[in-house]
Specification:
Aspartate Aminotransferase, domain 2; Aspartate Aminotransferase, domain 1; three-stranded antiparallel β-sheet
Length: 390
């Protein structure tokens, strides 16, 4: 390859820019797990104390109201969402919003698997949002706060009615710890350890409001619930689940890693500090995009632009004239070049999303690494364009 553009001299210290599992906190090492409760039961006093600490510190960092319950569940964010859907839906009609792949997964669950007859699907293409004013809050409403595969988020919670009669069920896995969540407008919130705080996979968090608890205790779905999904015993909320006594066995190594991430979050200023770090990463990329003619955000408007899963598309006429398949090959070539140089790992757009690149901009990513990465993207683009022209 003989492009005239030289390779940049400065490299990111941490080349991990994956949108899940996400980069570990700065300066993380295995030493962070040295206090992990290995070889002991999670039901021992010390085991339960670790799990309760994870719940209590989550509440503290995120500012979750004291009357909201927080549970640790299996299956990462996906497991938490599924538990919510299978326990709570069916009591009334459902509006489900989808503008990227994971939202469409919840459409499949609600319409096809659960077969909610009164379901209404509000769809939008990648880069856009559905019309939020069309949402009927007499229905239960299911939506993602931030579209991890599209880089499109809801701009705020103003569109959610305070006098709603249905429940709001929010998949917030790439938003929690990076975006302001209006808890009083959200009845169920789910997220995972492996996203914004860069924890390990397989564990999810399920946050339920008093309104959601009331639904759980007064409504029984028509379908059977497997043990892993059951949140109630004898018609009452199983409070043990929300006190750290998990339904199934958690990894205490992962618990220790999450506790370490929460401690780091407090050290950088808590939620406000996390938001500032992520916002700074987005600003750096925005400045670069504005002066780079061949790239743009996939999100169509600034106010819906994600500051975590930052999705970019190529806009040069030469690339746009290619078939979708060849555009995808072009984007993969850039990702390959960056990975080969060990300056950016896992930067490809999601497999079902429009071709492009996706840079994780959450708080665990250092601003200096974002700034070091951008010239390398320019270099890789120049190489890929040279190959196209040859």
């Amino acid at each position: 390859m003989s492009t005239k553009m030289p390779k940049p001299e400065l490299r990111p210290r941490q080349p991990s820019f994956s949108s899940g599992p996400c980069p570990k906190r700065p300066n993380w090492s295995l030493q962070a797990l040295s206090r992990a409760l290995v070889g002991r039961s999670h039901r021992s006093d010390i085991g339960k104390a670790k799990l309760r600490a994870a719940i209590d510190q989550t509440r503290d960092v995120l500012g979750i109201p004291v009357d909201y319950r927080i549970g640790i569940v299996a299956g990462s964010d996906t497991g938490a969402v599924e538990i919510a859907l299978w326990n709570l839906l069916g009591a009334r009609d459902v509006d489900v919003l989808a503008w990227e792949s994971f939202g469409r997964d919840w459409v499949t669950d609600i319409v096809n698997a659960l077969g909610i007859v009164g379901s209404r699907v509000l769809l939008a293409d990648y880069g856009e949002l559905p019309d939020l004013h069309e949402v009927n809050f007499n229905h239960d409403v299911v939506f993602v706060w931030n579209g991890t595969t599209s880089g499109v988020k809801v701009p705020d919670g103003d569109w959610i009615r305070d006098d709603r009669s249905g429940l709001t069920i929010c998949d917030a896995t790439s938003a929690a710890f990076a975006m302001e969540l209006p808890w009083h407008k959200l009845d169920v919130v789910t997220f995972s350890w492996q996203k914004v705080l860069g924890g390990e996979g397989a564990h999810g968090m399920l946050v339920v409001s008093p309104r959601a608890v009331a639904r759980l205790e007064t409504y029984r779905p028509s379908w059977p619930l497997p043990k892993l999904f059951r949140l109630c015993k004898e018609g009452k909320l199983d409070e043990a689940i929300f006190d750290g006594r998990t339904i199934n066995t958690p990894s205490m190594l992962c618990v220790e890693d999450y506790l370490d991430a929460l401690e780091w979050a407090r050290d950088v200023g808590g939620l406000k500090g996390l938001l500032r770090r992520s916002a700074a990463n987005l600003r750096a990329i925005t400045t670069w995009v504005e002066k780079t003619s061949w790239i743009d955000f996939l999100a169509s408007r600034e106010e819906i632009r994600s500051n975590t899963s930052i999705c970019l598309k190529f806009t040069a006429p030469m690339v746009m004239s290619l078939s979708v398949g060849r555009q995808a090959d072009f984007a993969k070539r850039i990702a390959f070049l960056l990975e080969h140089e060990r300056v950016a790992l896992d930067i490809s757009s999601y497999r079902n999303a429009p071709p492009g690149i996706r840079i994780w901009g959450g708080a665990t990513v250092e601003l200096a690494d974002i700034k070091a990465l951008l010239p390398w993207i320019e270099w890789a683009y120049a190489v890929a364009i040279f190959e196209l022209e040859s």
